[in-house]
Amino acid sequence: MDFEDGAAALSALREYGRAENIAAAHKVLTAAAFARRQFAHEVDLFGEEFAYRAGRSAEMETSLALGVSAFTAERYVAVGNALDLRLPLIREVFVSGRVDFPRVFALVDATAEISDATLALMEGHLADAALYLTPKKLVAEVMRELIRINPIEAEELRKRRERHCRRVSVTADLHGMAQVYATLTAAEGRTLDSLVQEMAGTVCREDPRTVDNLRTDAFMALVHGESYLHCQCGRDDCPTAHLPRTERPKPEVHIHIDLESLLRLADHLGHVEGHGPIDPELARLLAGDATWQAVITDARRIDAERNGSVGDGGEGDSYCGGDTNGNDDGVSGGEIACDKAAEGRRDGQLPREPKSDSESGEPNPGDSSVANPTPGVPTRYRLRRRTAGQLPPRQDSPRPSPDTNTRGPRITNILDAITANPALLDGQYPDGHGGYDHPPRGALTYRPSNTVRTAVFDKYDTCTFPGCTVKARDCQFDHIVEFDPDNPHAGGWTIESNGEPACIWHHQAKTDRLFRVVRLDGDVIVWIGQHGAIGVTLPLPAEQRPSARTKKPAARPTSKPPPAPPPPEPPDPGIYELTWWETHMHPTDLPPTLPELATITDPGHLARCAQLRAHHAEHLAILGERLRHQPPPF
Pairing relation of β-strands 499-502 and 178-183? Predict the structure, then answer.
């Protein structure tokens, strides 16, 4: 955009900012009004005893309409309600465009627990301060004004926060990182900062780490109970070179990586439980410094097939020491779960089998088959701890070209297709029968089998409601077309194409018919609100599904076929002696062959059978007489 001078550009910038603030004000106020309307409607619809869940559909449908998470939609509703019901002066400056949403949200959050009477005395000053203070300074100004007007209430709020708001949480971040959040009292926060600063100063000036890295390492040193940092300058004359270096205990961290990637035959993504996906090289690095707790689940599958039937436990049967619900994202198909434990080491040798009970005379604490046997799994296939093995060295492979990356349809393309053909919202199988003429086995029971549940939950990593972050393993199995217990043949069947994972909140909203769910071709799930809001959830790519880890690796090519085993040698006739039966029996004494069975009812055949029985009885009598008159050979 071209402007005559800088003053014209700044003037346009102010106008754009004011228009953005006005639009944001109308957005949150409309979201709040819609939520209040839906709350009253649902209370009338379901009764006051269900008022605790009324209004939730408004937040869900708002998230679909705006394309945001349910948490963000809930924030919009909370801000709009506070402006309408408690902060009329702040509402006025917000609607006028003079204050932006971050400042308004900071004020609403900071005054949420203040009584209405005290807030009425504070609001005039806060509305004026919001015109020129940043959000962080506005929060401090709220505390100053509260203490000045009502110090007793300020003290009560502080004590309440100390009892209920102190917490520490760790959340996943991008590129193999994590973020730590802590809510402490003012004294605890200052104490922690001072200790971190003091610990970071125990290294010499030549340490190559940045200030932020030093503070992070100092924080971890405090967590491990250490009194100083190890300097990394590498100089012999470093003042800290004489200090001992203690080994830190390694906590258990469950790392999931398939065997092909561990051996550098593939580059499939890894997974850290409680964190999320990590790149394969980081997974190999962690696995190289870990204790392996492994189950090669192909062995379980082979054993089940050998016994004539494969269990219906689905993928949950192959999970390595974890959830037993059959809908986890855990180990499967030759995958190894590596526990980064204290006994792990980088220079370990190849894994060795721990001694069994028969060898050592006592239970092996590293063998989970002793401490926690898994029902239905052969002992030789149960969990065993193994020390870290020697992984293949890294060899950088050429990067794949962008043309080799196949992607599925985009959500915008699906929305455009729905706009062009609204009949798509009828679903791929409107009757919920998946295209079957007759219900397959288990389709007429409400509870899905483990096979059906695993197949459905394998396609999605979270609840299928757009923006919901509840893991699929923590969700419920939801029938897309409702199951009819009174007439199972007519209702939606319990089959793979009629199921989806849904968290308890979204499942209940669908059961209350506040939302409608359809399945499109390609396992695409579409949620439709009462007022036409549409949200789309795509399935996981095939290579990222847990079932992709169960594929057996292709056999390596061999240079030449293995030599054929030598033919067995015939037995030595000198050591082979004919038995009594081989000496005295005749070919006519053998049982009838299959063609002869057709004449089994012939009278002549029955007479012959009677003669054979008499003949056999005579021989048995002779043999008994010989055994009574001859001494045993031993």
Answer: unpaired
Sequence-separated contacts (24+) of 74-77 with Cβ below 8 Å: 75/105, 76/27, 76/28, 76/31, 76/32, 77/28, 77/31, 77/32, 77/35
CA distance 389 to 346: 8
Residue 300 pLDDT > 80: no
Strands 499-502 and 291-294, bridge-based pairing: unpaired
Do residues 338 and 570 make contact, with C-beta atoms less than 8 angstroms apart? no
Q: Name the H helices within 364-442.
A: 368-371, 411-420
Count of Cβ atoms closer than 10 Å to residue 589 Cβ = 12
Rg (CA), the chain: 37
Q: What Å distances lie between residue 79 and 17, 30, 104, 131, CA to CA?
A: 20, 11, 8, 18
Token representation of residue 126:
């806060």
From the CB of residue 356, how many other CB atoms can be counted at a distance below 10 Å? 15
d(CA 150, CA 118): 7
Buried b (16+ CB within 10 A) or exposed e, 218-240: beebeeeeeeebbbbbeeeebeb
Instruction: Tell which phi-psi region holds residue 274, choosing left (phi > 0), alpha (psi between -120 and 50) or beta.
Output: left
Cα 184 vs. chain centroid, distance in angstroms?
A: 30
Angle formed at CA 426 by CA 423 and CA 431, multiple of 5 degrees: 145
Share of the chain above pLDDT 70, in %: 68
Is 102 in contact with 50 (CB distance < 8 Å)?
no
- Collect contacts of 241-248 with beta carbons under 8 A, ≥24 apart: 248/224
CA atoms lying within 13 Å on the CB side of residue 329: 24
Checking if the pLDDT of 341 tops 60, the result is no
Condensed to tens digits (0 to 9), the pLDDT of residues 101-134 reads: 999 999 999 999 999 999 999 999 999 999 988 9
What's the token pair of residue 108?
């609403």
Residue 418 and residue 410 in contact, taking contact as beta carbons nearer than 8 Å? no
The model's pLDDT over 262-278, given as tens digits with 9 standing for 90+, comes to 777 777 777 776 666 77
CA dist., res. 461 & res. 286, Å (int): 24
Per residue in 162-193, pLDDT (tens digit) is: 888 888 988 888 887 888 989 888 888 889 99
pLDDT at 570: 57
pLDDT digits (tens, 9 = 90+) for 488-497: 888 899 999 9
CA distances for 569 relative to 549, 575, 579, angstroms: 45, 14, 22
